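Same chain as my last thread, 562 residues:
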Amino acid sequence: MTASHGTAPSPFKQPRAVWAVAFACVVSFMGIGLVDPILPALAGSLHATPSQVSLLFTSYLVVTAVAMLAVGWVSSRIGAKRTLIAGLVLIVIFAGLAGTSNSIGGIVGFRAGWGLGNALFIATSLAVIVASASGGFAGAIILYETALGLGIAVGPLLGGELGSISWRGPFFGVAVLMFIALVATIAFVPNLPKPEHKTSLAAPLKALRHRGLLTMGIMALLYNWGFFTMLGYAPYPMELNAHKLGLVFTGWGLLVAAFSVFFAPRLQARFGTAKVLYVNLFCLGIVMAVIAIGVNTPAAVIVAVIVSGAFIGINNTLTTQAVMLVSPVERPVASSAYGFVRFIGGGLAPFVAGKLADATNLSVPFYLGGVAFILAIVVLASGHKLVDAAEKGAVEGEPVCPSLQRVGATPAPGYQPVIVAVGAIENADEIVDAAALMARDAGRPLEVVHIRETAVVEELAIDAEDAEQARATVLSHLDRLFTLGIAATGQVLTSVGDHAAAGRVLAQHANDIDARAIAVGRSPRGQAAQFADGSFTTAVLHNAARTVVMVEPGKAPHRLSA
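reply #2:
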């Protein structure tokens, strides 16, 4: 939440505990793509029909969906590390057993156990990385997103290479890699404190009573119906071996990762969540129609699948953003409820597609998938006003659009302060104190604006700190400044995902109160992350009719230019 100029601290200088979990994240995110290249080989070797093989997705995703309802209850009682380890143990056991199986029914059953482990793992991995990372919240999120992108992109490639040796290869590969991650997690990840309050088992289902969350959840269900129809059945009409299928889905995965991390936030910031989703879902419907029409033309299917990666990457990010926008409940509960509905759609789609393909022909499931994408537009339209209201801040619950909350005494009108914007970073005190000296020299009071960040990654949303912690941080700054004889006031600026939007809100606030100047520190996020979801400082520079300066401990403040 600070300036982009200069060199940011590297998010990759982390303790061994973080690398252990990040490695496991890469392998976990490989999960779906790893299996795709071996689907035709699996069907041939075990004399199974495509509809029978599709149950690998159904058992995995349906169990993951149901387990998402309970992961909050489990982790709030046994702690994040134990939940993480339990998930890893289950993945190792059931991935290994799937590799030893000689029947499609056995693999389907073992994939269900794998899905349970995956739910326990993905629900806690981000929290463990954030809790264990050095260099602050931003570095932890960058590392997690890197693991996400790497896993999605590399999974199909590894699956294709191992699958070209034997269809058992990807299963044994996951088991071995996750066992390494399990040992490293046990050895290096410290015990983390349990949450202060326990999550109710019924909380995610109760959350679905809220119209906004249920509406966005149904939209996600329909989207995942189309997505997993394509993922489960597109390999067959391509008529490629495991190695070449791996290359195709690697190209797809690279686009998913790139558009999810780098392009989706920028499109959202420019056009709004709902508008981008409308266009994106429509494009996915067209892609599915192309696959259905060209189901007997392998080249057409290959190109359509690779291109779909761009739209899927955007949708994966913005669908979660839409859920968080309209959700009036705590974000972990909203994530669990959303994950449940989302994965149910993904799990049922391959099963239904298989039955349709057996009864008709292979093009029909793809037509149905296209219809699901179009129906998702209709459902989104029914909740459009809720999304718009949330983006404007006119909803109850946790704030999603950037918003300022006063901490401490309200200043008198016309106080024209120097504003310092700073997040929950290691040298926050030094940045505030440097800005305080600048304010004192200018004969103006200081206003401390503390940035409270929430990151949204896939179906997960995690806060750098809760509201009380952010408030306590501001009060700590104010108390310290009081002892130094510097007049100061405080605010908390809540930011969810979109850093540039937070910068625009701060700029408008500075204009409204006729602030003398705005001081920022050096960004801990780096250039790539700032390109992805917008630079806070750049947004301030472009929107504030004020002087913007960078302050660094031990250095003279210097003015920034747009």
